[in-house]
């Protein structure tokens, strides 16, 4: 059995009952809300959300389309998408890293033997912003990481104005990041992934 099939918080979450037909019989509908790992087939939807979210703010995307496909082929188990009635509304993409801090190489590499999860990007579709979806998705992602036996820490880099958001999600600032993109500078943040045994006993992992 795969790790993914044993994780209760990645299974579909039904937020409302299936609709009924006029004759009183239920007809099939897509799950109202579903969390699952992404696949390469989701890459275009991911990029469309990311492009709209980041280009207007920073002028560039953390991941370009070919990079999204790259990570979703190499490590789809380190991604998480939130779908509403089959439509992607928010996502996280991560990869593994094998050093204490992020370097420029971390932007494009996946280190299969690493114990650090590098969170490349979290983005929410513009229609669904200001609803707390980013915080909820990050919480679920961190719960998921606690069920992965190799994961010890999560690292990410963000601009100054996003530091309070990630602090509310439980991350702590490590200081300036070594990585730069053009003229942009970043703060590096970390979240310990703790309680592996406890989580496995109590969440079905």
Q: Explain this structure to me?
A:
There is one protein chain. The chain has 205 residues and is an alpha+beta fold. It has a domain at 33-156: Aminopeptidase (3-Layer(aba) Sandwich). Helices cover 26% and strands 22% of the residues. It has helices spanning 43-58, 65-74, 133-145, 163-168, 196-203; strands at 34-36, 79-84, 87-97, 116-124, 153-158, 172-176, 187-192. α1 (43-58) packs across α2 (65-74). Residues 1-6, 11-22 and 196-203 have low confidence and may be disordered.
State the CATH superfamily name of the domain at 33-156: Gcn5-related N-acetyltransferase (GNAT)
**What is the strand content?**
15-25%
- Assign a percent range to the helix content: 25-40%
Query: Briefly, what CATH class of the domain at 33-156?
Result: Alpha Beta
**Gyration radius over CA:** 18 Å
Strand order, sheet with most strands = 1-2-3-4-5-7-6
Structural class: alpha+beta
Summarize the biggest pleated sheet.
Answer: 7 strands, mixed
Distance between the termini: 11 Å
What is the string of SSEs from the N terminus onward? EHHEEEHEHEEH
What is the helix tally? 5
What CATH calls the topology of the domain at 33-156 is Aminopeptidase
- Strand segment tally: 7
CATH architecture call of the domain at 33-156: 3-Layer(aba) Sandwich
Morphology call = globular
Kindly report the average pLDDT value: 84
Low-confidence stretches: 1-6, 11-22, 196-203
Keywords: Acyltransferase, Biological rhythms, Cytoplasm, Melatonin biosynthesis, Phosphoprotein, Transferase
Pfam families: Acetyltransf_1 (PF00583)
Catalytic activity: a 2-arylethylamine + acetyl-CoA = an N-acetyl-2-arylethylamine + CoA + H(+)
InterPro entries: Acyl_CoA_acyltransferase, GNAT_dom, SNAT-like
């Amino acid at each position: 059995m795969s790790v993914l099939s044993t994780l209760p918080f990645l299974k579909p979450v039904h937020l409302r009952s299936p609709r009924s037909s006029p004759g009183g019989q239920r007809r099939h509908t897509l799950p109202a809300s579903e969390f699952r790992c992404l696949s390469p087939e989701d890459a275009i939807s991911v990029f469309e959300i990311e492009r709209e979210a980041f280009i207007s703010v920073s002028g560039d995307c953390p991941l370009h389309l070919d990079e999204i496909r790259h990570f979703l082929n190499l490590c789809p188990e380190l991604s998480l998408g939130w779908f509403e009635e089959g439509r992607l509304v928010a996502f996280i993409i991560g990869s593994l890293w094998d050093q204490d801090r992020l370097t420029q190489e971390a932007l494009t590499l996946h280190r299969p033997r690493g114990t650090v999860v590098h969170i490349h990007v979290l983005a929410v579709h513009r229609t669904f912003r200001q609803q707390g979806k980013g915080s909820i998705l990050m919480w679920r992602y961190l719960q998921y990481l606690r069920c992965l036996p190799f994961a010890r820490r999560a690292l990410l880099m963000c601009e100054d104005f996003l530091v309070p958001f990630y602090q509310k999600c439980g991350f702590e600032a490590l200081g300036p990041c070594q990585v730069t993109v053009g003229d942009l500078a970043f703060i590096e943040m970390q979240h310990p992934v703790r309680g592996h045994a406890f989580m496995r006993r109590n969440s079905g992992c």
